[in-house]
Amino acid sequence: MITLSRKSGLTLIEMVALIVLMGVAIPPLMTMWADTAWRSGKAESSADAGFYAQELMEEIKTKAYDEKKLDDSGPPWSSSLGTDGESYPNFDDVDDYNNYSDAPTSGYARQATVAYIQLSGNNWIACPAAPCVAVIDCSACNQCCYKRVTVSVSRNDNVVSNLSLTTIVGGGS
User: How many domains does the chain have?
Assistant: First the structure.
């Protein structure tokens, strides 16, 4: 009769080889896992920043074009941008949000800027200082009948450095 001998356990050499193999394999695996976790966090923070920017942009777009023309009936517009005595949340026109900033939640900062612009050929350019009181016809491209609204969101820890949304709103004719 043949008897088989059974070995159980590991020899010392096998154990040392296993420890060396794990010592070589684990650090790169941990580095990959940490990198994946960091990227996942960054993607989530970017999505949150986009939401906060879109939230403020949609709020701004619901407001009237200008204080002087709350019925949006056309020029002349206010010669200056900014609040007309209101404070947030009582802003009633787009340019009240110029230089507005807040913190939508802990760790995030949000800022809005508004500027008069005009179409010159195929490019939007900044208007000269306070030209909008003289606007007569908004159908002419070189008139300052438009405002560029930019909302920027960043995180205090620089995971999201500066996410910006920009739109152009028109004042009508």
Answer: 1
* 22 occurs within a structural domain: yes
Q: Is residue 3 one of the residues assigned to a domain?
A: no
Residues 163, 154 contacting (CB under 8 angstroms): yes
CA distance 48 to 122: 33
Give the model confidence (pLDDT) of 21-52 as tens digits: 999 999 888 898 888 887 777 888 899 999 99
Residue 6 lies in a domain: no
Q: Taking the model in full, what pTM does it have? A: 0.71
Local structure of 114: helix, strand or coil = strand
- Tokens standing for residue 152: 């920027």
Query: Hey, what amino acid is at 164?
Result: S
Map tokens 């990227």 to a residue.
39
Cα gap 131→146, rounded to integer Å: 12
Burial of 103 (0-12, 13-18, 19+ CB in 10 A): exposed
Range list of β-strands (E), 5-107: 100-102
Q: Tell which residue, 84, 54, 59, has the closest CA to residue 70.
A: 84
For residue 4, tell me if it sits in a domain.
no
Domain limits at 50?
Answer: 12-170
